[in-house]
């Protein structure tokens, strides 16, 4: 069996009893960072008086996962195998997604354990949404793509959750405040750790607080929904197809929505009319 085991995002006590049992019985670990996983097992062994024994650890991260999966023999899963990201839920802005996909395509039995997730902790702590939300993970680092991501987050008719590094959290909140200084936001860092810190308020207010704060640590930002977009209806392909406009214009609009080549769309539209 292959197990995807969430690890504590702060307090070691957040590890589940089932996760501890599996960490004892699994023989092979795929790890986002083998050094972090070894340190985690050492800390857990001291806290809970558990002997995890020697484990075979294989580095599995965004830079090497494709190559490893290309050469991976499914027979390895005849043993109990675990995947560990550095902290939190595997596959959520962390490696693991491709390994799940590999298991599905190769008929490998697997289980994903429930566990710590920074996005949901931040969302509940923010009181900015009780139902619908959008998880955006990490935004683009710079340039036009980053501006587009920020605009998307501000335009969503649902609360948006964003991960951000300590190096960029201040500039991110500043950019939001310059666009909409009255937008209500919530920021939190060091979730479940001793120095957990959180601020809520209008974007400009939170920006002023962050300027005085220690920014070290991974941040989660929750942006309140765009109330002006509550009645927003997405433009569907079927809506465009029904428009009485030239085929070339129609094909360009469809390409904007589905990302396909407008020339190919135009050719298909032309064929469908004949």
UniProtKB/TrEMBL annotation:
It catalyses: cytidine(1402) in 16S rRNA + S-adenosyl-L-methionine = 2'-O-methylcytidine(1402) in 16S rRNA + S-adenosyl-L-homocysteine + H(+). Keywords: Cytoplasm, Methyltransferase, rRNA processing, S-adenosyl-L-methionine, Transferase. Residues 1-206 form the Tetrapyrrole methylase domain. CDD domains: RsmI. Its EC number is 2.1.1.198. This is Ribosomal RNA small subunit methyltransferase I. It is found in: Cytoplasm. Catalyzes the 2'-O-methylation of the ribose of cytidine 1402 (C1402) in 16S rRNA. It comes from Campylobacter taeniopygiae. Belongs to the methyltransferase superfamily. RsmI family. Gene3D superfamilies: Cobalt-precorrin-4 Transmethylase, Domain 1 (3.40.1010.10), Methyltransferase, Cobalt-precorrin-4 Transmethylase, Domain 2 (3.30.950.10).
């Amino acid at each position: 069996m292959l197990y995807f085991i969430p690890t504590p995002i702060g307090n070691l006590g957040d590890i589940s009893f089932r996760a501890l049992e599996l960490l004892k019985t699994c023989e092979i670990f795929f790890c986002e960072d083998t050094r972090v996983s070894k340190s985690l097992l050492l800390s857990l062994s001291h806290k809970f008086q558990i002997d995890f024994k020697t484990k075979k650890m294989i580095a599995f991260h965004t830079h090497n996962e494709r190559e490893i999966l290309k050469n991976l023999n499914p027979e390895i899963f005849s043993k109990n195998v675990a995947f560990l990201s550095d902290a939190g839920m595997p596959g959520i802005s962390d490696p693991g997604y491709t390994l799940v996909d590999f298991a599905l395509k190769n008929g490998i039995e697997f289980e994903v354990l429930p566990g710590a997730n920074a996005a949901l902790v931040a969302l509940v702590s923010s009181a900015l949404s009780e139902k619908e939300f959008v998880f955006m993970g990490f935004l683009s680092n710079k340039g036009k793509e980053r501006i587009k991501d920020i605009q998307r987050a501000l335009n969503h008719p649902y609360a948006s959750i964003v991960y951000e590094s300590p190096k960029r959290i201040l500039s991110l909140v500043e950019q939001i405040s310059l666009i909409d200084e009255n937008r209500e936001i919530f920021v939190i860092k060091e979730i479940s750790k001793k120095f957990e810190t959180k601020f809520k308020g209008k974007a400009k207010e939170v920006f002023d607080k962050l300027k005085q704060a220690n920014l070290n640590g991974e941040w989660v930002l929750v942006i309140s929904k765009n109330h002006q977009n509550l009645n927003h209806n997405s433009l569907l392909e079927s809506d465009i197809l029904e428009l009485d406009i030239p085929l070339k214009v129609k094909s360009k609009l469809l390409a904007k929505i589905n990302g396909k080549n407008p020339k190919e769309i135009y050719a298909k539209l032309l064929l469908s009319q004949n």
